[in-house]
Write a structure and sequence with these properties.
The structure is a single chain. α2 (about 20-40) runs parallel beside α3 (about 50-60). This protein is an alpha/beta fold. It is built from eight helices and four strands; from the N terminus they run ααβαβααβαβαα.
C-alpha cells in the first residue's frame, strides 16, 4: 500500500502491474467501509484526492457535508479510469464543495465531468514558510540573473518534469 502514497506515486506505481490495481481497490473498499461504519461520529467529511478518498466519501458519507480536494494525480487517474466520466459526474453531484489546487486542474475535471461544477473553487495548497527578504539583495547574494524558475514537485513521469526542462532549454536567460 505504501506505493499509493510514496515514491514514485500512485500512477507510476500502478502502471504495468495489474495486481497492484487489486491492492488499490482493496484499500478503497476498506476506506469506504470504515467511513460508513463511523459516519455517525462526524459532522462532515473533507477528503483529499478524488480517487479514492472522495469516491469513498461519495459512497459512504450519507447526508454529511462533503468537501473533496483534488491535487493532480487523482484527476489524471480519474480521466483514465473506465467509467471515469460517470464517476466525475457523481463526485460533482454528491459533494458540497470541490476544491482544486489550480485553475488548470479544475478545467481538466470539468472536461471529464462534462461541465464546470458550480460549487467548485480554486485554492492553492501550501503556506509561505520563508521570511520576507529583499528580492534584489537575495538575487545578488545567490548570483541569480534573469528569470528564476523553481520546480516544486517529484520528478516522476506524471508530473512531466521533462516538459519544464524542454521549455527551459530554449530560455537561456532563465536560472
Amino acid at each position: 500500500l505504501q506505493g499509493l502514497s510514496a515514491l514514485p506515486g500512485a500512477p507510476d506505481w500502478l502502471a504495468g502491474h495489474r495486481w497492484r490495481w487489486g491492492v488499490a481497490g482493496s484499500f478503497a473498499a476498506r476506506l469506504t467501509a470504515e467511513l460508513a461504519l463511523r459516519r455517525r461520529w462526524y459532522g462532515g467529511v473533507v477528503s483529499h484526492w478524488l480517487v479514492p478518498s472522495t469516491v469513498a466519501g461519495v459512497i459512504a458519507s450519507g447526508a454529511l457535508p462533503h468537501v473533496g480536494i483534488a491535487h493532480g494525480s487523482d484527476v489524471w487517474l480519474l480521466s483514465r479510469l473506465p467509467g471515469g466520466k460517470a464517476l466525475a459526474h457523481r463526485i460533482e453531484q454528491r459533494t458540497s464543495r470541490l476544491v482544486f489546487v489550480s485553475e488548470a486542474l479544475r478545467t481538466q475535471f470539468a472536461q471529464i465531468a462534462g461541465g464546470l461544477p458550480s460549487h467548485s473553487v480554486v485554492q492553492p495548497m501550501g503556506v509561505d514558510p520563508l521570511p520576507r527578504v529583499d528580492r534584489d539583495q537575495a538575487r545578488a547574494q545567490w548570483n541569480l540573473h534573469g528569470e528564476v524558475w523553481l520546480w516544486m514537485g517529484r520528478f516522476v513521469p506524471v508530473k512531466a518534469p521533462q516538459r519544464a526542462l524542454e521549455r527551459l532549454a530554449d530560455a537561456p536567460e532563465v536560472t
